């Protein structure tokens, strides 16, 4: 019940508490230290009435897959086996024995499931689809057509997310016709990472080095093991490292990922509030340098976001011009690695903060992964039209209105002509 309550308030914490620091938010809700592992919160869209005469007719969407398991099996197996070895050697504290038992339960549940969608992840996608089908019933009524085209990256968790989403849509609107694609053919907009790959290793190494230097883990290790020197030797050997930072980071990952499931033991109490914030901060830096709009790497990364944005514009043009008849929605399913640069290229409020690595300790002031990209995070363009053919667009980030630097007299609605011009300008190679 405690976990359910934490998850139910997650969206409120993400969107209603921007006046709080991330340190304060994480202290109030430990799950927000999860960053990209934060489960999608139960949300209700605020009711917004479109300007008189406008009705929704088309939706363009990109969504990350739902809640999932860790993508590397060793993140489960390695700590479980290491803690069990320490227990055999009599080197665990009472708290350490408790951690060992919990990690074994988590590892057994994850056996051969690395990267898979969880049942919660499936429900997240179904919930988003249900709210879309209900709130924008005019889109799916059949008046403008009845066809939906969906694309997924070849990743199994994305494909299953697409299936869960579209199945729920069709349950609510049985007359819909749905075409599904999941291949490398569309990877340039389902998982656009071509440009990121040119610097990823450099950025990750920079973040990893910083994480290793800044992690303060001795107190944590001493709460788990009764022999610090033994623990250091065991951890370094297990993680093939000269440093122990990997163990604490691994435990933090597991503590955060369990919110993606229904009946796994919690690990929050093994960390102090300062430790939890420290781990979030260091992983936030890693995500920012590898995926975000940093001064160091963000201009290259933005090129991948532009690829996705161009696809959104082109397909919308085809719908509005009548070139693509009968289509009422284009749905894309992929990864946080696409959502992050898309929001940055759009200059969505709170998603485009730019600082250099030299100033990285200021990052929580300008960019927070937990706010930007939870599991099932999505960006939706809802198109409205009146009888004269004028088109307005409402932009949503995880089903909440977002502001971008485009003038409008009717927020949260933007004139498509103005929004399109702005988006095309952002897609230029030298746009920042």
The number of domains? 2
Provide the residue-averaged pLDDT.
Answer: 94
CATH architecture of the largest domain: 3-Layer(aba) Sandwich
Helix content: 40-55%
Tell me the strand percentage band. Answer: 5-15%
CATH topology of the largest domain: Rossmann fold
Structural class: alpha/beta
| Shape label | elongated
The tally of strands reads 8
General description of the model:
The protein is of the alpha/beta class. It folds into two domains: 229 residues, Phosphoglycerate mutase-like (Rossmann fold, 3-Layer(aba) Sandwich), CATH 3.40.50.1240; 122 residues, no CATH class. The chain contains 18 helices and eight strands. Strands 1, 2, 3, 4, 5, 6, 7 and 8 form an eight-stranded mixed β-sheet that branches. Strand 5 and strand 6 form a beta hairpin. The chain is elongated.
Task: Please describe the topology of this protein.
Layout: H1 2-8, H2 10-16, H3 22-28, E1 55-64, H4 74-88, H5 94-109, H6 119-135, E2 147-152, H7 156-172, E3 177-182, H8 187-190, H9 200-214, H10 218-224, H11 228-238, H12 245-257, H13 273-291, H14 298-321, E4 327-334, H15 336-346, H16 363-366, H17 369-372, E5 378-385, E6 391-397, E7 400-401, E8 413-415, H18 416-426
Parallel strand pairs: 1-4, 2-3, 2-4
Antiparallel strand pairs: 1-5, 5-6, 6-7, 6-8
Helix pairs in contact: 3-13, 4-5, 4-11, 6-7, 9-13, 14-15, 14-18
């Amino acid at each position: 019940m405690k976990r359910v309550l934490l998850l139910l308030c997650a969206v409120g914490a993400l969107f209603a508490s921007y006046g709080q620091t991330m340190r304060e938010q994480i202290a109030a809700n430990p799950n927000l230290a999860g960053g990209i592992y934060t489960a999608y919160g139960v949300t209700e869209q605020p009711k917004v009435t479109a300007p008189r005469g406008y009705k929704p007719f088309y939706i363009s969407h990109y969504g990350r897959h739902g809640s999932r398991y860790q993508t590397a099996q060793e993140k489960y197996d390695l700590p479980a086996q290491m803690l069990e070895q320490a227990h055999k050697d009599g080197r665990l504290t009472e708290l350490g024995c408790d951690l060992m038992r919990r990690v074994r339960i988590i590892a057994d549940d994850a056996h051969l499931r690395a990267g898979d969608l969880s049942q919660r992840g499936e429900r997240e996608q179904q919930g988003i689809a249900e709210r879309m089908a209900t709130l924008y019933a005019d889109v799916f009524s059949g008046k403008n057509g009845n066809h939906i085209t969906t694309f997924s990256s070849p990743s199994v968790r994305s494909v299953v997310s697409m299936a869960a989403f579209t199945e729920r849509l069709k349950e609510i609107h049985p007359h819909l016709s749905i075409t599904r694609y999941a291949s490398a053919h569309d990877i340039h907009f389902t998982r656009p990472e071509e440009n990121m790959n040119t610097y990823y290793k450099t950025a990750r190494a920079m973040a990893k080095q910083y994480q290793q230097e800044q992690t303060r883990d001795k107190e944590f290790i001493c709460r788990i093991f009764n022999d610090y020197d033994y623990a250091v030797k065991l951890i370094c050997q297990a993680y093939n490292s000269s440093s122990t930072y990997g163990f604490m980071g691994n435990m933090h990952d597991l503590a955060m990922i369990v919110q993606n499931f229904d009946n796994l033991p919690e690990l929050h109490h093994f960390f102090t509030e300062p430790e939890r914030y420290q781990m979030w901060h260091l992983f936030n830096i890693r995500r920012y340098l590898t995926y975000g709009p940093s001064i160091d790497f963000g201009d290259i990364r933005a090129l991948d976001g532009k690829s996705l944005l161009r696809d959104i514009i082109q397909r919308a043009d085809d719908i509005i011009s009548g070139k693509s008849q009968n289509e009422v929605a284009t749905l894309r399913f992929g990864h946080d690695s696409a959502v992050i640069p898309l929001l940055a290229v759009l200059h969505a409020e709170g998603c485009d903060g730019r600082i250099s690595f030299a100033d990285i300790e200021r990052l929580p002031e300008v960019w927070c992964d937990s706010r930007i990209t939870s599991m099932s995070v999505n960006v939706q363009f809802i198109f409205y039209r009146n009888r004269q053919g004028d088109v307005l667009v409402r932009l949503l980030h995880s089903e909440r209105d977002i502001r971008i630097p485009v003038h409008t007299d009717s927020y949260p609605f933007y004139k498509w002509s103005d929004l399109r011009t702005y988006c095309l300008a952002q897609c230029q190679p030298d746009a920042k």
